[in-house]
Amino acid sequence: MPDASGGGRPAPDPRPIGAGYCMDGKLILEARDVSKRFGGATALDGVSLGVERGRILGLAGENGAGKSTLIKILCGVHRADSGSLELDGRPYRPRGPEDAERRGLSVFHQEIPVCPHLSIAANVFLGPFMPRRGLGPDWRRMNEECRGLYRDLLGEEIDPSRLVGDCTAAETQLALLVRVLSRNASLVVLDEPTTALTPPEVERLFAILRRLRDRGVSFVFVSHMLEELTSLSDRIAVLRDGRLVGELAEGEFDSRRLSSLIAGRAVEGGSPRSAPPPGEPFLEARGIGNGRSFSGLSFSLRAGGILGVAGLAGSGRSDLARSLFGSPPLSEGVLAIDGAARSLRSPADAIALGIGFVPEDRKADGLFHKLDVKLNLCMAGLERFSGGIALREDRLRREAEAAAAAVRVKMAGPDAAIGSLSGGNQQKVLIARWLALRPRLIVMSEPTRGVDVGAKQEILEMILGLSAEGCAFIIASSEIEELLALSDEILVLNRGRRAAILPRAEATKESVLLAATT
Amino acid sequence: MGNANASRGGVAAFKRLFGFRDFGVVAAALLIAAFFSLTSPVFLTAYNFFNLLRQTAGLGIVAMAMTVLIVSGEFDLSVGAIYAVTGVVTGLATKSLGLNIWLSAVLGLSSAMLLGLLNGLLVTLTKINSFIATLATQMVYRGIAMVLSQGQPVSNFDEDPFYSILGRSEVFGLVPVQILWLLASGLVLFAALHRTTFGVRVYASGDNRDAAELAGIKTARVKRACFLVTAAAAGLASLVSLGYLKTVTPTQGTNLELEAIAAAVIGGTSMSGGIGSIVGTFIGTFIMAEVRTGLVLLGTDAYVQDAFVGLVIALAVIVNVKVSGRKAI
């Protein structure tokens, strides 16, 4: 990192970062024929690829395709069984993440390690090189240098004394980006950096990444979102079953081609959903609100109907989904089911009325990480397993096996740890949890977040199949394509208010976006 | 993934083969027993074995109940004080009020459960961390025991079959009756935690409270029930002690909570909730007792024993983490 202290320098006049590399198309990282086996399973099979200096390489692939293994080899968590790596023209065999960082390669994970009770500046400088005055840290100098780094690297003005715990996920990420760049990172691996970000935050992050790229920093960008990959990358490499199955140069980007490379087959673009089901609505919401993030919402739903809920982050989309499950309860308006007004004071009330819920944050609000797959499958409506006092374990096992088979959960067995399942299969478990209760309505938030392309398609098909059997859905999602593929109607929220309710025929990506953002 | 998973899979298969998950603790208990059997000829005798279990019965009852509470994601530092209150209330009821000892015992047990209910309400209604909440109630409850008894022991009770049934008889002239109370409590708690839907709710509440709520489990209710169970166990343990000693003191049960937590941890219970078993804690209690007894037989003094038990706790946790492949206890 060239001199960044003082910080008086304004944003323009970009100088190269990372020891002043010129962008000569040379490779900063080159992997040749890298293979890795775990026991009997081949995770990587002769992968060769290169990252050009000052470029962004997109890395695509389903869960289990070998992306994580490759990343772990790059940052030294795993060692390759065979093949070679070169960083900056020199052989590269990192002994661990610290060693990799010393060589100029940093990895961003999905879970970001920060100290939430320390300021942005302290998080940026944390470590042996923290500026000191006497025995204590030199806060003034740190704040100044931090402000300078933000201005120089990101072109942004910030208050470096804010606590990281008060920052949004996006701001936290930027702090870590500044942190690694200030330590001479010349290649940054971004492992799904956008999962916790809203669309405007993603745009902002991308603008910053492009700016850094133009100044010579190289990136490997891993994402499930095809639009993100095509919009940010200079080149996209696709892994499948541990092999490199294709590389697309910038002119060749095409979502359909990319998704067929990833999945190994062409994924349907359109939706098989036909006309909405006939019949009278069984659920009616009249002017409902939670007294905080949304209010005055009215809509109705027929048996087997699918209502999509769109809106930007903070529009009340996620809160509406939770409140329809009584967690926390609605505070305004009337929710009528079969013509009778119902108050859902807790999830237990909602379940008693035949409502199921699949939360947005699978890890935090859905899964029991220390319990096995069968208990995770059967956790809702446990009463049905108590014959008198004793737990009917035979029945629990039988139902778990049936539920797993019904949604095609790939697992070693009902006693497997839930953590051994892929994201897509975990999501299927959370949906299957409700099926034995024969719900009339399942409320879902972000039904395919963090799920690979193949599993995503399966989950969408599952939702359509269940709705054909009469189960209604309310689906809150930030992915408009997904809502368009599923919904009979889309309720668009804007700052907690109903901006539009678009029937299937009128809903397009443009009309939804327009209603959500104006 | 990979090698780590393969070996973990091997351990899992092994555990399934033997039908229970507490293999590590049992192996440790057997190893320690083997060591002391070699160093002391008296160690491996029926007399020593029963004596060891008799001494540890009260702790075992409390520790196993505490395991249920810890699995639910809470714990209770006031069990020692509840143990004292139960004894003092029972003793005073029969001694000062002249009530029948059985009726007094019911009164004592009820007061224990009332205090457990208070713990549960305090923790679930205010959402205070149970460490802080029960640290506070521990002092309050100990104070109650002191005030009621004016700091004096209560003894010289009238003769009654109560004492032999709770703590003084030997079944078949061989097995001290405390051991039966220990085993009976163990069976009841085992069934409750491992063989009922209530048990599943306990595990779910401790593993991921938010997810449990969203699955329709009323976690506050589950946790309150666990506080109640723990307090009732402290009450029962106190009555067993009263039966054996025929005396109660307001200071009895000091540090009982820490020993109970230690036994649970040695037995593989996770302090963050969601992991633990009754069999594990039973063996954990047994390990603590066999280390103490073994050291006595070796002729070491009492201070050294405490230090050794501390070492055993640390060792047990390290081994458990390694064997189970878990991140932390």
Tag the structure with descriptive keywords.
heterodimer; A: 518 residues; Rossmann fold; six-stranded mixed beta sheet; 32% helix; disordered N terminus; B: 329 residues; mainly alpha; ABC transporter involved in vitamin B12 uptake, BtuC; two-stranded antiparallel ribbon; 4 strands; 75% helix
Explain this structure to me?
Chain A has 518 residues and is of the alpha/beta class. In chain A, 32% of the residues lie in helices and 25% in strands. Chain A is globular, with a radius of gyration of 25 Å. The model of chain A is unreliable at 1-14 and 18-23 (pLDDT under 50). Chain B has a single domain (19-323), classed as ABC transporter involved in vitamin B12 uptake, BtuC, CATH 1.10.3470. Helix content of chain B is 75%, strand content 2%. A two-stranded antiparallel ribbon of chain B has the order 1-4. Classes of the chains: A alpha/beta (518), B mainly alpha (329). At the A-B interface, helix 10, helix 11 and strand 20 of A face helix 1, helix 9 and helix 10 of B.
